[in-house]
Every structure is written in C-alpha cells, then in structure tokens.
Specification:
single chain; 350 residues; alpha/beta; Rossmann fold; 6-stranded mixed β-sheet; two-stranded antiparallel ribbon; 14 strands; disordered C terminus; MxaL protein
C-alpha cells in the first residue's frame, strides 16, 4: 500500500488545527495578580538627565514614561494598576486601579503624558508624600509602588524627617529608587516652561532652616543668637540631583515597604510581584492563537513542498533535452592479437 504524499498529510493536519482554532479553545487557570497604585514623583529633580535612550540623555521622568508601559504590559492579565503623581507633600490620584489587559492603551497613554508641569508646587517633601500615599492606599485597600529619587527640597532638618504615624506594614508595596548615583545638574525653566540653564548653589537652600539650628552653628560666620542662629548658609550639593538611596531605604523600612532600585521592566515586575499581596483570580486563556499558528506553519510547509515539486516537474523536460536522446552504449569487439607462428618440425625422409 502506497503512503500518501507528505504534502497531503501536512495539508490535512493543518486543516484539523485550523478547525480547532476556529472552535476557540480555552483553558481556565487560577493565577496570582496584583492590585497596585503607581505614585510617580514629578518634582524638579526628576528632570535631571542621568539615563540615556540610544545614546541620547534622558531625564528620570522621561525614563519612567518609557519604562512603565512595558512594566504594565508584563503584569499578569487580571492585575490592576492605578496612577497618581507626587509633588510638594501630597499624592494626587489620576485614576484608581483598573485591569491591565482590557485597559492597557488607557494606562499607557496616561503614563506617556506624565509631565513635571503637573506639579502644583515646587517643594519635594518625599517623606510626607510617601506617608500621604500610604494613607490613600490603606483607605482604598490597594498596594503601593512609590517611584522617586528621594531628594527632599528643602532639605530635611538635621534632627530628621517627619515620623510615620500609621501602622507599619498595613499597606504592602515597594519604594523604587529612580536615578543615578553620580550627582548631575538639575535643569531649571522659566515661567513659560522653557529650559533656562541649571540650578546653582545660590538658587537652592543647602540646609533646612526649620527647627533649632544644628550643633556647631555658633561657630559659623555671621552667627547671632537672636538674628541669625543658623549662621551663614553652608556650601553643599543640594542643587545637584542624585539618588538618595539611603533615605528611601530608611523610609521603606519605617513604613513596612520593600525597596528596589529601578531596573528593567521585567525586574520591576518581579520586585512588585514579590512585594505586593497576591490576588488569585481565575482567568480564561485563549488557546486558539496557538492552534492557528501551528496550522499556518504546517500549511506553509505543505505549500513550499508543493511548489518545490512543481518546479522540479517543470525542469525535468529541460534537463532531459540537455542530455539528448538516449542511445544504447556502443559495444566494441575485442581485439585479438595474432599469436606468434610456431613452425612444425619437418619430417626427415629416410
């Protein structure tokens, strides 16, 4: 019994897989999802350019605009993500957490439009902003992802920052450190939003003038116990932007959050999944694309084999013509070499 041609077998299997794909096969599966609010720092230091995009300097905020949509796309369907911004000492919610797969274009578009001009004040009180974001998360029962470079402006008093008055660990989530570890200048802008150079030491207070003066202030030039108890403003680097990682780690520890430095979208997905509460949900996985892709591959192989067979059949007469008509091979008679004549002995007559 002859076997059917391979191309017919491929076409038959492809047809079966196409029928399976058309039937829309699905699989129900329980997966862990997350329910988080992204709180993005939009203060002035986030305009510092210590990232790069294909060799072009990129600000911290622009880097987040490019990275966060990929992070959202990497989350499991059924997860929910909200978006808020932080400036001054408060976090402002742009939208509550929504499902990432069904509403991904909405989330990605909102992230793409984050801008430093959304800030309503110039201060950057990171500790207060984190505490406020935690209060919002606790009231709405979602986890928090707070993304900031940790730069307080004005600087915190020498005695420390504001205490956290909530219950540690009530809200789970992640503090994400944004920016590099090498100080870079902070761009400044005029009243029309046009870049106008960089901040200098004279533009930015180098220490806090809130509360009692630091120890040793009486030894500073210009010190006066009543009129100038802090003395002259010391030199410093508050006009430069650098990731204040120690400060962010301390804030995360005080509030019961985890900490991670910003990396790739996949690394952020892993860190958020580990820090946030898992929310098991039953999802329906569509298997039709897998069956359809297999059908296309097999159909393509069958067509390729059919085309190859057609080309071979078309070339067969040409090859035969090039060879010419068939003739039986000529036979040659063997050449017989004459042997040397041997003379018979003559008879001697008696």
């Amino acid at each position: 019994m002859r076997r059917p041609p391979l191309r017919l077998v491929l076409f038959a299997v492809a047809a079966v897989l196409a029928a399976v794909a058309a039937a829309g096969p699905t699989e129900r599966r329980v997966v862990d999802t997350v329910d988080v609010m992204l709180a993005v720092d939009v203060t002035g230091s986030m305009n510092a350019r210590d990232y790069d995009d294909a060799g072009v300097p990129e600000s911290r905020l622009a880097h987040l605009r490019r990275l966060l949509p990929a992070f959202v796309a990497g989350l499991t369907c059924g997860s929910r993500v909200g978006l808020s911004i932080f400036t001054e000492r408060r976090s402002f919610v742009l939208f509550e957490p929504i499902e990432v797969c069904a509403t991904y274009p909405v989330i990605a578009a909102a992230i793409a439009n984050l801008d430093w001009r959304m800030a309503w004040e110039g201060d950057s009180r990171v500790a207060d902003g984190l505490h406020h974001a935690l209060g919002l998360a606790a009231a709405r029962d979602y986890d928090l992802v707070f993304l900031s470079d940790g730069q307080e402006a004005p600087p915190l008093p020498w005695s420390g920052g504001p205490p956290f008055e909530g219950a540690k660990g009530t809200v789970r989530g992640l503090v994400v450190g944004v920016g590099g570890t090498v100080p870079v200048p902070i761009p400044k802008f005029d009243d029309r939003g046009r870049e106008a150079g960089f901040y200098t030491m004279e533009d930015i207070p180098q220490e806090s003038r809130v509360g009692p003066p630091p120890p040793g202030a009486e030894n500073r030039p210009g010190w006066h116990p009543r009129n100038n108890p802090f003395g002259e403003m010391p030199a410093g680097t508050e006009h430069l932007a650098v990731l204040r990682e120690d400060h962010l780690v301390r804030l995360a520890d005080e509030t019961g959050l985890a900490y991670a430095r910003l990396g790739t979208p996949a690394e952020l997905v892993e860190a958020v999944s580990a820090a946030a509460r898992p929310h098991p949900v039953e999802t329906v996985v569509d298997r039709a694309p897998l069956a359809g892709a297999a059908a296309l591959v097999l159909a393509g192989l069958a067509v390729a084999r059919l085309a190859f067979a057609g080309v071979a059949a078309a070339l067969r007469p040409t090859a035969a013509a090039l060879r010419g008509p068939w003739r039986p091979p000529a036979t040659r008679s063997p050449t017989v070499r004459p042997s040397a004549a041997v003379s018979a002995p003559s008879e001697v007559s008696s």
